[in-house]
Specification:
Blueprint lengths: L1 H8 L13 H15 L4 H7 L5 H16 L3 H9 L9 E2 L9 E2 L1 H8 L3 H9 L15 H7 L3 H9 L6 H7 L7 H16 L1 H5 L7 H5 L3 H9 L8 E4 L6 E4 L1 H8 L2 H6 L19 H8 L2 H9 L4 H4 L6 H5 L5 H9 L17 H7 L3 H9 L15 H8 L2 H10 L13 H9 L3 H18 L3 H9 L16 H7 L6 H6 L6 H9 L5 H6 L6 H9 L3 H9 L21 E2 L11 H8 L2 H13 L6 H13 L3 H7 L10 E2 L16 E2 L1 H7 L3 H9 L17 H8 L2 H9 L16 H8 L2 H9 L16 H7 L3 H9 L9 H13 L3 H14 L2 H5 L23 H13 L8
Antiparallel strand pairs: 1-2, 3-4, 5-6, 6-7
Helix pairs in contact: 1-4, 2-4, 4-48, 6-7, 6-8, 8-9, 8-10, 10-11, 15-17, 17-18, 22-23, 22-24, 24-25, 27-28, 27-29, 29-31, 31-33, 33-34, 33-35, 35-36, 35-37, 37-38, 37-39, 39-40, 39-41, 41-42, 41-43, 43-44, 43-45, 44-50, 45-46, 45-47, 47-48
Keywords: ANK repeat, Repeat
Pfam family, one: Ank_2
């Protein structure tokens, strides 16, 4: 029982530290042990719950949470009768039905229980029906509504629960399935509208989802009560990327209900639109994007400001054109909508005419031309001109229409839509100049489109001749023929002098093309990308063909999208991002032992000398993949061990979103994968730097990695080799060894680090960091908090801000006992007696398992016992 209480009070789990614990399974285990030992009776609970000590409070809170989550209301009732305050316990979300992660007992039960007695039980024992953890209006009633728990809703309303705007907002999300659903939704709205707070506050937010689901009767009820709905709301901008501000009328226009738009036409706001941030977007803009001619008619009929609506990132016509609504385009033009933007040398966005041409909207093209649309603007992306876009569609009528209207032929053509169009271009006398400018690219597009007639026509007109400088990633006609399996073009292209490239070989290997040998016969030089592709495809046949053709495997392979079966790791030596430098790295990462040995033999025959950086990256990859043969071969080669490689799936210390992966040197990788012998070899044979941290957002020293894993054997090896206990944390989300031990709850490791001189007050990482005290508080480690405070963790002066954050972190994660422990410690600091008390001295290693330190530290005996146990056992995943 002592072991169970220790685990409960310190929020420790018998699970892999990298895996999320199964809270419901732990709840079942806790309640089962309580019943087996008789600790679930009132007599024991009456002894436990009134004790105002952090350990007892933490245990009581955890048992209460388990009982609530497991619907054990017999135990809940006993604990309430024994003095448990239901509003002081924060329960983790275990059902996933509603938003949010932490709840009061009443909020939790209001979601999960279909029994009125369980809700009344909590309320009768002091649960505040209107309490919310964040004072955000998300009360028990809100969560009951969100879970559509009608029983809970009725009980809470009977208990006079306040209907907040958030409750109404949630209710209007629901599509009624029956009269009963509709009845309680109407009750919620009526109660809300009858409350004085509704008349005084901002009721607009409550209507958002009524607009989304076009609940006209709800809008009418709000208007009938003369609720003030003027003003602005923040919503997603029409471009879908940024935020903007608009009125409820704007949202009604966005959601497309003309009747609701008519109801809300009177709404207004008093701010200057030009000064608003995020910017104001007019209702007409939303209506145009939606393509609703009825709503646009209503808005322009009520004198909507079309000129202002046209000043956004897109004009009204540009927004509505993808819908292809000719009548709406005519309506907007008739009321003064812009046909074109102001003239510029080049335009970033396609014009309305360009959009109409690309979508093949012939009637709208006619309308825009007749309305005076400019025909020869240049655009930065896509087809450079409207005539170029028309050529790409292959529509001869459209091309002729634009040409007759004044569009000029240019060389800004990215694609020719058909043989007939190509012949028309030739008739105009510009084909040869066009092919001289973009011939290979046009031929590539024709081959990829499988338009054989057009491709042969272009080939006969010398489109294959490359007149401009190309790079290794340039898509060539030969590459396109292999990519699209148009193998009939391969030999003619080779006969015409097409150059076989590394990427063409790689594509042939990837597609298992039968022309690989033909291509190899015309190839000389280095092809690391082709060799890499063969390695990733695990094709010994292709590797032998490449070697037989005397292909050189030296050089850096290119990452070609679609060639590699999974995202590669990116290496970052010395913090400078780079791609793979050699085939060796790919082989170490992905090849089996047979292929890896073949690559080494091939390289030896060519007398290839791998760079130390490349060998180090290959070694790190092999260690991460735990490939014994690869490691043994690579460790013999000369390498620079102070080099990082970034893993594609970082094991995050906390559950933060990550923008870049975690980096590893060979030693860090060996520690991370807990390969004890490799760690020894790297330290003893290769003299790896035991304190090398490297670069990257989540970099750690080897010791910090080992502490994260709780592996005492590796920790001891690193310490024997001179690992720096107080190595600083990384700038982003980093942590010292002691801070990590505090976060993980490894009290024995923390005790050892403190004895060896770890700084209990070392400051956190600049970004998303934690002091040791903050980390222990955030994760509810009661005994760790005691030990850190006894060891002199500062909570005043320059450290007071960290203390406050520690309290906030504990409360934010639902560890109320930990938060109270910190607050009481702060209160004791303010007393005169505490100022004269000597600081706890570091002599635990001299004490026996049951000795005290003489300074009032009641936990030093337990800490020392755990320290001795962790010296006996290699891992602290199970603290005992």
């Amino acid at each position: 029982m002592s072991l169970l209480f220790y685990l409960i009070s310190n929020n420790l789990f018998l699970s892999d530290p990298d895996e999320d614990p199964d809270v419901m399974e732990q709840d079942e285990q806790i309640l089962e042990i309580l019943k087996d030992t008789g600790w679930d009776d009132f007599k024991h609970l009456k002894r436990l719950i009134p004790v105002r000590m952090p350990t007892a409070e933490s245990i009581a809170e955890r048992i209460f949470c388990a009982a609530v989550r497991q619907d054990d209301f017999d135990l809940v009732q006993k604990m309430l009768q024994a003095g448990m305050n239901p509003d002081e316990v924060v329960i983790e979300n275990s059902f996933g039905e509603v938003d949010g992660s932490l709840f009061t007992a009443l909020q939790h039960v209001s979601v999960t229980s279909r029994c009125a007695s369980s809700i009344n039980l909590l309320i009768n024992h002091g649960a505040d029906v209107n309490f919310s953890l964040k004072a955000d209006g998300k009360t028990a009633l809100f969560y009951a509504i969100e879970a559509i728990n009608v029983v809970s809703i009725r009980v809470l309303l009977a208990q006079h629960a306040t209907v907040t705007p958030e409750c109404v907002y949630s209710a209007t999300l629901i599509l009624p399935n029956c009269k009963e659903d509709l009845s309680w939704i109407e009750d919620i709205i009526e109660i809300y509208l009858d409350q004085d707070v509704a008349m005084q506050g901002d009721a607009k937010a409550a209507l958002l989802d009524a607009l989304t689901h076009r609940h006209k009767h709800i809008v009418e009820r709000f208007l009938a009560k003369e609720v003030n709905l003027n003003g602005l709301l923040t919503t997603r901008a029409p471009d879908g990327e940024n935020e903007c501000q608009t009125t409820l009328l704007g949202l009604a226009a966005e959601y497309g209900d003309a009747e609701i738009v008519r109801l809300l036409l009177h709404l207004s706001f008093h701010e200057d639109p030009s000064l608003l941030c995020p910017p104001y977007v007019q209702p007409l803009v939303f209506a145009a994007k939606r393509g609703s001619i009825d709503i646009c008619k209503i808005l322009v009929g009520s004198n909507a400001d079309i000129q202002s609506a046209d000043e956004g990132e897109k004009t009204l016509l540009e927004r509505t054109l993808p819908r292809g609504n000719l009548a709406l385009c005519q309506l907007l033009i008739d009321h003064g909508a812009k046909i074109d933007r102001q003239p510029r040398e080049t335009h970033q966005r396609p014009s309305a005419l360009m959009v109409a041409v690309q979508h093949g909207l012939m009637d709208i093209v006619d309308l825009l031309i007749n309305s005076g649309a400019r025909l020869n603007d240049l655009f930065e992306v896509g087809p450079r001109t409207v005539l170029g876009a028309a050529v790409g569609t292959g529509d001869e009528e459209l091309i002729q229409k634009l040409y007759n209207a004044g569009a000029r032929w240019t060389f800004a053509i990215r694609k020719i839509g058909s043989l007939k169009i190509a012949m028309l271009i030739k008739e105009k006398g510009i084909l040869s100049k066009l092919l001289n400018h973009r011939g290979p690219q046009l031929l590539v597009e024709a081959i990829l489109a499988r338009d054989d007639d057009l491709a042969w026509f272009l080939l006969q007109n010398n489109a294959h001749e490359e007149r401009n400088k190309t790079g290794p990633r340039t898509r060539t006609p030969l590459w396109a023929a292999i990519e699209s399996d148009q193998l009939g073009f391969v030999v003619p292209l080779l006969d015409l002098g097409a150059k076989v490239t590394d990427t063409a070989l790689a594509k042939a290997i990837k597609t298992k093309s039968t022309v690989l040998q033909i291509l190899l016969a015309a190839f000389t030089g280095s092809a690391p990308t082709a060799v890499t592709t063969a390695v990733l495809e695990a094709s010994m046949i292709d590797l032998e063909l490449l070697r037989k053709a005397k292909v050189d495997l030296r050089g850096a392979p290119l990452f070609l999208r679609g060639h590699w079966s999974c995202n590669p790791v990116k290496s970052t030596p010395y913090g400078n991002s780079r791609a793979f430098q050699s085939v060796l790295e790919i082989a170490a990462w992905k090849a089996d032992a047979v292929i890896f040995k073949y690559i080494l033999e091939w390289a030896s025959a060519l007398q290839v000398t791998w760079s130390p950086t490349s060998v180090a990256c290959a070694l790190t990859l092999a260690i991460l993949e735990q490939k014994t043969y690869h490691i043994s071969e690579l460790i013999r080669l000369g390498s620079d061990l102070d080099v990082d490689i970034a893993a594609d799936v970082p094991p995050s210390l906390w559950d933060f979103d990550v923008s870049e992966p975690e980096t590893y040197s060979p030693l860090q990788a060996a520690v991370r994968t807990q390969q004890l012998q490799i760690v020894r070899d790297l330290l003893d044979l290769k003299r790896a730097d035991v304190n090398y941290m490297g670069e990257g957002q989540f970099r750690k020293t080897p010791l910090q990695h080992a502490v994260k894993l709780g592996n005492m054997e590796i920790i001891n090896i690193l310490l024997e080799q001179g690992a720096d206990i107080n190595a600083p944390p990384a700038h982003d989300s980093g942590a010292t060894a002691l801070q990590i031990a505090a976060i993980q709850g490894f009290i024995g490791i923390a005790r050892m680090l403190l004895d060896l001189g770890a700084d209990v007050n070392q400051k956190p990482a600049k970004k998303d960091g934690r002091t040791a005290l903050m980390g222990a508080a955030e994760h509810g480690r009661i005994d760790m908090l005691h030990m850190l405070l006894d060891e002199g963790a500062e909570i005043t002066g320059e450290y007071e801000c960290y203390f406050r954050e520690a309290v906030e972190l504990a409360e934010g994660k639902g560890h109320c006992a930990a938060a109270r422990l910190l607050k009481r410690s702060r209160d004791r600091v303010r007393t005169p007696d505490h100022a004269q008390a000597p600081r706890h001295h570091r002599r635990l290693r001299l004490l026996g398992p049951t000795q005290g330190c003489g300074q009032g530290c009641r936990h030093c005996g337990l800490a020392y016992t755990l320290y001795k146990l962790t010296k006996r056992y290699p891992s602290e995943r199970d603290p005992l």
